[in-house]
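FIELD: query
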Amino acid sequence: MRRSRLDAIGVQFVQDGAIYGRSAMLLSLFLMLSPLAHAIPLHPPPLAYVAACVGTDVRPELLRAIAMVESDERDTAVGDDGISIGRFQLNERFHDLRARSYGEYDPRDPYQAAYVAARILQDDYAALGSWRLAIAAYRQGIGGVRAHGAIMWYVNRVEGRL
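FIELD: result
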């Protein structure tokens, strides 16, 4: 007899104890049918993003969306002829300035890079007063947004990952 995916999940939990199997299935059903189901993220942001956002107004989901757009969340990503590094494509021309502001960091370390990226976004938001403009400034810089306006294709791409 062929088992459905749900049956397989139930059997796995039954091996641990029958109560867990039924509870897990009921919880899954509740979450699917609940009017609050949309508020519960299916894939919560990694701990690096949550930890990095502490003390800022930046949402971990926004930080993850930027990492996905910038590098598909690859810590080894290198762009701009070797100038932008890591999952957040931190431009190393500004490393010394950022290190003075936020502390020394390794752009390939997901926790350190997320911390710096969250502070950059927070600073962009504080300067521009809008999250959409802050997203644009993450790519263009605050001066670039003020001088040339926001690059909306980038903003839309990031928002599409939220």
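FIELD: remark
Confidence is low (pLDDT under 50) at residues 1-31, 36-42.
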